[in-house]
Amino acid sequence: MEVKFTKLERALKADTLVLPFIEGEKEIETDIKLKRVIKPALALKDTKGKKGEVSLFYPDKKDVPKRIFLVGLGKKEELNIEPIRQAYASVAKKLVSMKINTASIVVPEIGNDELSRGERLRPADIAGAVAEGIFLSDYSFDKYVSPEKEEDKYQPLKSITFVGNLPKRVTETVREKLVIADAVKYARDLQNDTADLVCPEYLAQQAKAIAKEHGLKCTVLDKKKIEKLGMGLLLAVNRGSNLEPRFILLEYKGDPKSKDKTAILGKGLTFDSRRYNLKPTKFIETMREDMSGAAVTLGVIKGAARLKLKKNLVGVIPATENMIGSRAYKPGDIYPSMSGKTVEIGSTDAEGRLILADALTYIVQKIKPARIIDFATLTGAMLITFGDVVIGVMTNDDKIYETIYKAGEATYERVWRLPIYDEYRELLKSDIADIKNLGGRPAGSITAAAFLEKFVEETPWLHLDIAGVSWLEKERHYLPKYGTGTGVRLMIEFLKRM
Ligand code: BES
Ligand code: MN
Ligand code: ZN
Questions:
Q1: 225 has catalytic annotation
Q2: Cα–Cα distance between 17 and 19 in angstroms, integer?
Q3: pLDDT in tens, 304-337
Q4: Which of 92, 119, 123, 459 could bridge to 137 as Cys pair (CB 3.0-4.6 Å)?
Q5: What are residue 17's DSSP bridge partners?
Q6: What is d(CA 156, CA 436) in angstroms, rounded to the nearest whole number?
Q7: Which of 26, 45, 224, 279 is catalytic?
Q8: Number of C-alpha atoms within 13 angstroms, CB side, residue 170?
C-alpha cells in the first residue's frame, strides 16, 4: 500500500474524502466549500456521529470530492486512541467492500483541552490510531478461495492519503504504523495457512528469508544437531511426526555497541493433534494456530529490522508437530531435558511447555540474554480465564511487567498478570522423575508457567500465554476472523519503551 500526505486544500480534488464527525456536534470544522456541501447532509440527521458509523454522500459539486464519507468518532468525552482505531477500522472495511482502493482521509484534530479526563492525545497518537485502524483492517486470507469472477476477489487498499497539517513526527508515525501492520499481517498469514504447508522446515525457511532480506544471522538446527544438544523434550514431542523438528535462531543486532540482548521465544508447534490425550473438543480444527508464538516472534524480528529499532534481539523457535503414531510419546513416559532434569509425561497434550523448556535451557546456556520473553499458545485455560480479550502474563520480574502492562494499554493488546506461588509449583511434583509436565486442571495456565519457570534459572523472564487472543472465531474491529497476529504490536511497543 502507498501512503501519502497532503494539506486539506489539495485533498479537495480527491475522488474520495473521509471526514471525521464527532457525535453531538452541529458542524464539522473544515474547509468552507466542504462545510457548504455537508450542511444539508448533517441537517437530515441520518448520521449522528456514533462511533464507527460510516455514511456516504455524493455532493455533485465542483471543487469538492465526488464521494464524501463521514466517520463517526463517538462522543467527545469518550474519545481516545482505541475508539479512533475502531472507527477507522469501519472506514477501511467500508472502502474495501465498495472496492474503493484509493482515498484521502482527514486526520481528526482534537484539542487536548477538549478531552475531559485530562489525558493527552498528541497529534501523532491520533494519526497513528487512524493509520492502525485502517492498515490492520485491510486484511484477508483468501489464497485458497477461487473467486467466481475476478472482481469478487479481495482487493486491498492501494493508496491512502492522510490529510491535514501534519508535521514530520506525524508522518513518521504513520509510516511506522504501516511497517508494524505489515509485520502483523505477516504473522496472521503464518497462523492462517495450513499446517501442511507451515511445517517446521517452512518456519525455518521463513526465518532464513527474513535474514536474507535484512542482513540478519539465521541458524537452523536439524534433528541431528538437536539430538547432539540433548533436547530430549523437543525430540519426545516430535516422535510421532513424520516431519523432523527444527530449532530456529534469528538474530537482529540493532544496537551493536550494546551487550544488552532480548531473547524472544515462540512456540512453533505447527500442528497439535492433542495426542493420546485426545479429548472430545472442537479445538482440534484450529490447531494449526499452535505456532502463533513462532509467528509473533518472526513478525517482531521482521518489524524491528524494518524499523531499524536500536535493540539486540534473538528470535528462538523450537518447531515440531505433535502427532499420533506408534512411535509417539505416551503418558507415563519419562524423558531427559537439555537441562538434565527428567520429565514425567503426565499429558502428551501439554507438549508446548516441553519444547519451550529445552529452548529456555538453550537460551540460558548459550545465548545468555538480559531477558527472555516467550509467546505461546500454551493453555486452553487461558480462554476460560480471559476469553479472547486479554493476554495472561506470568513473570519473575516486576519491572518487565510494568513495561509490558503499559505497552498493552498503548496498543490495546492488553495483558494481565497471574501469580506463580509455591502452592502451584507443588502441583508439578513427580514420584518417578524430577518434574511432571502436568499440574492438573485447576489453575492450568499458572502451572504451565510454573513448569517453564524451572528452566529459566535466574534470567528475567516474561511468559505471555496467547492461547486466547491469537485466534478469533468472529472478526472484531480491526482484528480479522482466525489468526490475529496479536503480540506483534505489543512486543514492538514493549521494545521501544524498554
Ligand atoms: N495448544 C494447546 C493449548 C490451546 C488450546 C491453544 C486451545 C489454543 C486453543 C496446548 O498444547 C494444550 O493442549 N494444552 C493443554 C494443557 C493441559 C493438558 C494441561 C490444555 O490446555 O488442555
Ligand atoms: Mn497440546
Ligand atoms: Zn499445543
A1: no
A2: 6
A3: 999 999 999 999 999 999 999 899 999 999 999 9
A4: 92
A5: 68, 104
A6: 48
A7: 279
A8: 20
SS3 of the chain: helix, strand, coil, percent, to 5: 40, 20, 40
Please choose, from the candidates 329, 312, 305, 314, the residue with its C-alpha nearest in 3D space to the C-alpha of residue 245: 329
Contacts of residue 276, Cβ cutoff 8 Å, sequence gap at least 6: 324, 328, 330, 331, 348
CA distance 178 to 138: 11
Identity of the residue numbered 27: E
Whether residue 476 lies in the annotated active site: no
Task: Give tens-digit pLDDT for 442-470.
Answer: 999 999 999 999 999 999 999 999 999 99
Q: Are the C-beta atoms of 180 and 489 separated by less than 8 Å? A: yes
Q: What's the average model confidence in pLDDT over 400-425?
A: 98
Would you say residue 130 has pLDDT above 70?
Answer: yes
pLDDT at 147: 85
How far is residue 117 from each of residues 77, 120, 210, 471, measured CA to CA in Å?
Answer: 8, 9, 43, 33
DSSP codes joined into one string, 320-368: EEE--STTS--TT-EEE-TTS-EEE-S-TT--HHHHHHHHHHHIIIII-
Write 222-228 long-range contacts (CB < 8 A, 24+).
Answer: 222/246
Distance, in Å, from the CA atom of 290 to the CA atom of 270, rounded to the nearest integer, reads: 6
Atom of ligand 1 nearest to the CA of 381: 21
What was the pLDDT predicted at 31?
A: 87
Spacing, Cα 350 to ligand 2 middle (Å):
5
From the list 137, 124, 226, 211, the residue with the least C-alpha distance to 176 is 124
Q: Which domains does the chain have, with CATH numbers?
A: 2-167 (3.40.220.10), 186-497 (3.40.630.10)
Distance (Å, whole) CA 171 – CA 83: 21
Q: pTM of the entire structure?
A: 0.96
How far does residue 379's CA lie from ligand 2's centre (Å)? Answer: 8
Among all ligands shown, which has an atom nearest to the Cα of 285? 1
Q: How far apart are CA 358 and CA 337, in angstroms?
A: 6
Which band of pLDDT confidence, cut at 50, 70 and 90, is reported for residue 382?
very high
Instruction: Judge contact between 153 and 147, C-beta under 8 A.
Output: yes
